[in-house]
Structures are given as C-alpha cells and as structure tokens.
Amino acid sequence: MTAAALFEGVVHGRAAVQRRAIAKAITLLESTRAEHRAQADELLTALLPHTGTAFRLGISGTPGVGKSTFIEALGLHLIGLGHRVAVLAVDPSSSVSGGAILGDKTRMERLSVHEKAYIRPSPSSGTLGGVAEKTREAMLVCEAAGHDLLIVETVGVGQSELAVAGMTDMFVLMQLPHAGDELQAIKKGVMEWADLVLINKADTDPHAATQAQAQIRSSLRLPGQHGRPENARHGALWQPLVLQVSALQGQGVDRFCAAVAQFRALQTANGQLVARRERQALAWMWERIDAGLARAFREHPQVKSLLPRMQADVVAGRVAASTAARTLLLAQATTE
Amino acid sequence: MTAAALFEGVVHGRAAVQRRAIAKAITLLESTRAEHRAQADELLTALLPHTGTAFRLGISGTPGVGKSTFIEALGLHLIGLGHRVAVLAVDPSSSVSGGAILGDKTRMERLSVHEKAYIRPSPSSGTLGGVAEKTREAMLVCEAAGHDLLIVETVGVGQSELAVAGMTDMFVLMQLPHAGDELQAIKKGVMEWADLVLINKADTDPHAATQAQAQIRSSLRLPGQHGRPENARHGALWQPLVLQVSALQGQGVDRFCAAVAQFRALQTANGQLVARRERQALAWMWERIDAGLARAFREHPQVKSLLPRMQADVVAGRVAASTAARTLLLAQATTE
C-alpha cells in the first residue's frame, strides 16, 4: 500500500476500512527497514495538517494501580460524551520481553470492541527512545483519523514516565491509597511532572486515601514546584490537583473529566498548551538527532575497530576518559 | 611550559614549585584552544599512572547549608591525621555569573593557606558537562601531586549533583535540620545518590535535627533504594547513613571521618569501589563523545543552514519532529 493510499484510508476511510488503514499506517511507521522510512516520512508529512486539535493525555502508574480499569471507564465515559478515543502505550519492558502488557485489549474488554475507540499496544522492540518515537507517530495517525482524545499509558518505572510526560498535554500520575507509593514517586522526581494525581481504589481504604491526598497535596506545594519563570508570562497558572477515584466502581470519573476540561481551558487561555507542544516538538527532534548521531558513531568502521581497546584502556586507567573520547571522535571525523 | 615540564613539577616538585605546577597544569587542561588540547592529553596520559589511590569525596548541599565551614573543619582534621587534601568545585552557575562562589578560598581561610591543602574554584566557563570534565581532570592533577583526599563540592541545584556523584567514590548530601529541605532532596531524586546524609547546624535545633534524621532514614529505607542487582554480587552492601554534625562547633567531624573510613573499607572489600570507578570512567567517556558529536553536528555548515527553517517547520507543525531529525542527519552525512 502506498503512502497516498494509507493517507486516504486513515483520513477519509470509514469504519473497518479506516481501522485497517490505521493499523497498516502504524505498522509502516514502526518498520525499521530503510525503504519504508521514506514512505513513512511522506505519510507523516501528509497527515500532519490533520493533527493538532486532539487532546493528549498521559497516564502513568505502577502495575496494579488500576490503569486499565480506569482507562476503560474513562474511555467509555468520554465516548458517551461524543468523543472518539485512542489508547496507546509506552512500555519500557516490551523491548526486553517482546510482549506488551500495556494497551492489552483483553484488559479493556468493552472499550476495545467499541467502534469509537482504537487501542494499540506498545511497540515491542527498540530502545525506550525508539518506542517513544513510534508511539508519538502512532498518536499522529490516530489524531488524523479523527480521534480527538488520545490516551498514552505507561508504567511507573524508569524513564518511560518522562517520555510520556514529554509527548502529552497533561500528565496524570495514578497512586494507591497507601503511604510509600507516593513517597516513591516524590523521591523519583516524577511527582514534579504530574499535572494531576489520582488516588485510585480510594473506596478500599477511605482513611488512607484521604491521608495520601493531603500528603501529596502538601508535597506538590513545596517551593520550586511551581511558578517556574518560563510559565509566568501569561496569566494564571495551573495548580496540580489531587483527586480520589474508584475506577472499578466508576466513582470520580466525571470529576476527573471536569478537571481535565478545566486544565485544557486554562492552558489554552494562558498560552501554555501551545508553548508546551512547541517545546515537546523541538525536544523530540533533538532527541532523535542525538540518537541518530550516537548510532552512526557506534556503527562507524574506524570507531568500531578502536572502541574495544579504548574502553579497556579507560577501565584500566591507562587513558583518561576525555582523551579516549577525543581520540574516537577524531577517528570518525578523519575517516569519513 | 611543555607537558613534560608540567608533569615533572606536578609529580616531583616540592612546596611552592609543585603548587605553581598544579595551577599551570589545571589551566592548561581548562584551555579550549585546540593546540593546547594535544599537550593536555599528553599531560593527562603521563599523570594517569600516578593516580587511583586517592579517595574522592563528593559533597553537595544548598547554599547556606554550611559546606565551606564543614569542608574547612574536615580538611584541617584530615591534615591533622597526616593526609593531604584538595578541594575542587563544580559550580553550575559559574558559567553564567563568570564568578565561582564554590571553592572560594576566602571562605576557607585556614585551610586555603595550609601547605598540605590545595583549593581550586570551579572552572568559570562552558556547559555543565564541560565544567564537570575540567573538574575531573583537575582531580587527576591533584591526585598525581600526592593529595590523597579529594573533595569535590557542588550546590544542591540541577544536574551538578549527579555530575559530582558520578566522579566521586562517595557522595555526601548536606541538609539543614528543618523539614522541607530534605523533602526537596527526596523529591528531586538526589537522595538516592547519597551514600551519607549530613544534617549540619544540628546544635541550632536539636529536636528538628533528630526529627529530620529519622525522616531521612526512613525515606532511605524505601524499597527500590537498595539491593540493586548489580550491587549484590560481592558480599555486604553499604547502607546509607544519616549523621548529625555541627561544622561551626567542630562537632561530629571525627564521627563523619570514621564513617568515611568504614565506607571505604567496605567498598574496597566488596569490589564496589573498583566497579564504581570503572562505570564512572566509561560513562565519562560516552558523555564526552555525545557532547562532541552534538557540537560537530551543530557546527556542520549544511546543518547550520538548514536548521532555522527545520526548527520553524517543526514548531509550526508542518514537519514531524522525527522527519526533521532524519533530514538534518542526512544533510550532515551526505555533505561531509
């Protein structure tokens, strides 16, 4: 299928035709074959004018926090309000395990079969940077196909949360109603990225949930958290919220949606939505450039042949690390 | 002065001669002029066999926590035990302000004039990566000159703490005896890097200090903090300590030194000291390679001429970030 045919199917296709075109387009974008890459770039460039109006919601939380249950409840609620919802995943472990637990359709039984929803598991190969890039591109496909609410989920481990916060308009952190968990998130610095913290399963321990809510609220109010100068240019700033929900009981989903709408309205009015997307797009470009430079360097024949000895010399303390770096850089530059 | 002459002065010079040679060697290593770089690499390679036995101690804390007072007390105490002490600084703000507050000799009046001590302020130009590289290299000079205890200080802001933790054998975080501060450190994830946390000025508020000590201890015991698999290979592992001191009164300095000695003995016995240095050296090499690749990319004529339009297209949503990245990478690769 050509890029033009895929474009037609994604943007103008109906029902099953569109669904198949979305899947094929994403598969093309995920391909690592060089001849597919030119086609993929052609498709991306064609799709771009049809993107930009959807809202991009990132949701993170450790395994067991109830992400799938919440996303299914949220997705069905939003569809009820007339939206079309796409769910994508960034799974840092999928490159190791080969399987993708996140975005697993069997975990979202009702949402996955809904004609107004599209669910795509995590790309199952590549580095985290590669997986994140594929997910960003898949997001553009879903958006061009008319999905106006994009949900990107990830697990609360490692760098994947940063990657998801860096590709969405609003980043939501899900927590359980016990101490420890939120302290972990505070400790890892992830809390700083949250626009909203959800305490799920609040009904299982209302007292703990209320305590956790107060604790997280106070941690979010620490100096240094808000009022970054870059944010202070346009009017009022968003103050992160901490809400209690019970996804299994469907409690709090409407309150959450109201908070998202409020966030979106404020960020649009104060210019932060546009500013954030511009920053994200440039950061994404530079991240891909850095990754490309690193790959080309490691694959350079002269570097490849020098590297093992250089690394051994550095580890053994025979050559300073900065000297080794300069030697290798020079080897690449002078033999190209 | 040739690299060979500088080497002689640094390694075999006496008193004032050696002191001058150290200063000149560090100045040479800090030079960004291309013709100095070859000389600098020659000097570094010659000095390396004379390094590796000193202990490298990183000390971080927000302004006002009492770093200088503590380092002076510690340095004089160590000199009293027969050591030679060098104090270096990584100041992330020095590239902006041009001045270096850290490692300022006027703040360590007694230590700075001691013949067994050498104090060097932060390199005052370049990116944080550049400043860190210069400090690493200066550390090697001081070590080759016979300083067996190297202290690298930094302020508790931004990435500089990670840089210092990544160039030292033991990373110490200084805190004040009030809540808030240590929560900040926990939040930023810096606490995870600390091998030891010092609560300074404990005498000004003994109750708060004891409370902070308990709070930090409990946060350091959270799951995920210890028992990383890579650390579990050789015997007993270090458990981070939280100590109270009062640098101004000289209280707790001997207890701190005992803890450092304990840490060093354990890390030597379980193989972690060597493993950490090997990891640091390789990470340092790759960091300098990445920085060099990024610089060469940005300075490439074809990239320079394409970049403004590409960035504008990406920001405006006309070209996908990944497409722009590939276009720029191709432009560099095909016109070299």
TrEMBL record, chains A, B:
UniProt xrefs under Gene3D superfamilies: 1.10.287.130, 1.20.5.170, P-loop containing nucleotide triphosphate hydrolases (3.40.50.300)
Coiled-coil segments on the chain, per record: none
Pfam family, one: MeaB
Similarity annotation: Belongs to the SIMIBI class G3E GTPase family. ArgK/MeaB subfamily.
Name recorded for this polypeptide: Methylmalonyl Co-A mutase-associated GTPase MeaB
